[in-house]
TrEMBL record:
Gene3D superfamilies: Aldehyde Dehydrogenase, Chain A, domain 1, Aldehyde Dehydrogenase, Chain A, domain 2. Its main location: cytoplasm. It comes from the Eukaryota. Belongs to the aldehyde dehydrogenase family. GO terms for molecular function: glyceraldehyde-3-phosphate dehydrogenase (NADP+) (non-phosphorylating) activity; lactaldehyde dehydrogenase (NAD+) activity. CDD domains: ALDH_F11_NP-GAPDH. One of its GO terms (cellular component) is cytoplasm. InterPro entries: Ald_DH/histidinol_DH, Ald_DH_C, Ald_DH_CS_CYS, Ald_DH_CS_GLU, Ald_DH_N, Aldehyde_DH_dom, ALDH-related_metabolic_enz. It comes from Erythroxylum novogranatense. This is NADP-dependent glyceraldehyde-3-phosphate dehydrogenase.
Length: 496
């Protein structure tokens, strides 16, 4: 159970502690932040409301710990990460329990997230040894006008203190996708978890604590973004920020100092369906891509752009599959569970009502109870409707009928987002041409958008973010290249 057994020390009464300098602590503020269960809409957990002074101490500790950690052998860093991964997977049940209660993620998917996170940490340890164990040797006479009088040894060194800010929907997995690359590269890590998902993150951090990482190297501060958010992201002691979320990331990028930024900020992932597509395959992927975890995924299908000639058939196939979705509490492993907050549900409802007023075809009756919104397919959506462009982050999916491939590509590219997209066709030549024309970081051919596997490059264009994720890219983003040049008194040629 959460907060018991090996996790007992992270809980004080009914408030979870924050993690600093290798210890679980109560905030001097004496205040806490409530975490509301999306299903019951009652307070489920409480976490510390950390102060700016406590943030200062956390970053100072991180800076000191990082200096020693950078001198720790690479194999030792990897060894500790493997140990943390094993502990994380060993304790998947209490962490999954938190995910169910904090973010209403179905129980089975919650356990899968924790196991996947452990696998990500282990893979990062292995990849880090490979990437960081190699340098580069350059010679000066490869550039015109130079003799071989200089040897350059290029290596990768850590940045310092990395600030990681994951989102509510995958708080554990997207936290470790930042934590593990930072640590294997020799950095210290400060984690600011989302409010919904904070207790899951605190349990995950305790697994790293149990693995025996040095004090101060990993910290986890909780609290209100309005009080410590900007203070963290603008802190002069932070050397890199890895953020996953929404519009907040754009604000961070404008305020942060001259440091590397890695940001994934959402999407309006388009699904383009051609006449020759396997419509059963398309329908199955629309259900998986549009409605899994109630559509609360950055890589969810957010708009279907289907050729008019096959639109009726596809809509009927999707409707039949929507009717089979199980709706209810996450504890029962339902397909559609309550969205994360009441404000999220209200936003989604606003998009639905706008579409209704402007004449969209409702393939199901709109139904809502509290934060629970029944899955809804909206046909005959037009570009003047908000749902055509805005990201609902819920179980509502618009269908726009198109008369040409060019029309579908134009709609995709007219969006301010550019995370992922997908195209369904049996013609690989058409698929590649469309993929090249779509202004998105990734295009899936004959499958729904997805972030994983976690070692694949993952990036967005336009307002969907900057930088690239994926284990290898994240490691490389969290290091600098340092060159050491040896100057010779005379040209030297091998075997000369």
């Amino acid at each position: 159970m959460a907060g018991t057994g090996v996790f007992a020390e992270i809980l004080d009464g009914d408030v979870y502690k924050y993690y600093s300098d290798g210890e679980w602590k109560k905030s001097a503020s004496g205040k806490s932040v409530a975490i509301v269960n999306p299903t019951t809409r009652k307070t489920q957990y409480k976490v510390q409301a950390c102060t700016q002074e406590e943030v200062n101490k956390v970053i100072e500790s991180a800076k000191s710990a990082q200096k020693l950690w950078a001198k720790t052998p690479l194999w030792k860093r990897a060894e500790l990460l493997h140990k943390a991964a094993a502990i994380l997977k060993m304790h998947k049940d209490p962490i999954a329990e938190c995910l169910v209660k904090e973010i209403a993620k179905p129980a089975k998917d919650s356990a899968t997230e924790v196991v996947r996170s452990g696998d990500l940490v282990s893979y990062t340890a292995e990849e880090g040894v490979r990437i960081l164990g190699e340098g580069k040797f350059l010679v000066s006479d490869s550039f015109p006008g130079n003799e071989r009088t200089k040897y350059c040894l290029a290596s990768k060194i850590p940045l310092g203190v990395v600030l990681a800010i994951p989102p509510f929907n995958y708080p554990v997995n997207l936290a470790v996708s930042k934590i593990a690359p930072a640590l294997v590269a020799g950095n210290a890590l400060v984690l600011k978890p989302p409010t919904q998902g904070a207790v899951s993150c605190l349990h995950m951090v305790h697994c790293f604590h149990l693995a025996g990482f040095p004090k101060g190297l990993i910290s986890c501060v909780t609290g209100k973004g309005s009080e410590i958010g900007d203070f963290l992201t603008m802190h002069p002691g932070v050397n890199c920020i890895s953020f996953t979320g929404g519009d907040t990331g754009i604000a961070i990028s404008k305020k942060a100092s001259m440091i590397p930024l890695q940001m994934e900020l959402g999407g309006k992932d388009a699904c383009i369906v051609l006449e020759d597509a396997d419509l059963d395959l398309v329908a199955a992927n629309i259900i998986k891509g549009g409605f899994s975890y109630s559509g609360q995924r950055c890589t969810a299908i957010k708009v279907v752009l289907v050729m008019e000639s096959v639109a009726d058939s596809l809509v009927e196939k999707v409707k039949a599959r929507v009717a089979k979705l199980r709706i209810g509490p996450p504890e029962d492993d339902c397909d559609i569970t309550p969205v994360v907050t009441e404000s999220s549900a209200n936003f989604i409802e606003g998009l639905v009502m706008d579409a209704k007023e402007k004449g969209a075809t409702f393939c199901q009756e709109y139904k809502r109870e509290g934060n629970l919104i029944w899955p809804l397919l909206l046909d005959n959506v037009r570009p003047d409707m908000r749902i055509a462009w805005e990201e609902p982050f819920g179980p509502v999916l618009p269908v726009i009928r198109i008369s040409s491939v060019e029309e579908g590509i134009h709609h995709c590219n007219a969006s301010n987002f550019g995370l992922q997209g997908c195209v369904f066709t049996k013609d690989i030549n058409k698929a590649l041409l469309i993929s090249d024309a779509m202004e998105t970081g990734t295009v899936q051919i004959n499958s729904a958008p997805a972030r994983g596997p976690d070692h694949f490059p993952f990036q967005g264009l336009k307002d969907s973010g900057i930088g690239s994720q994926g284990i290898t890219n994240s490691i490389n983003m969290m290091v600098k290249v340092k060159s050491t040049v040896i100057n010779l008194p005379a040209p030297s040629y091998t075997m000369g």
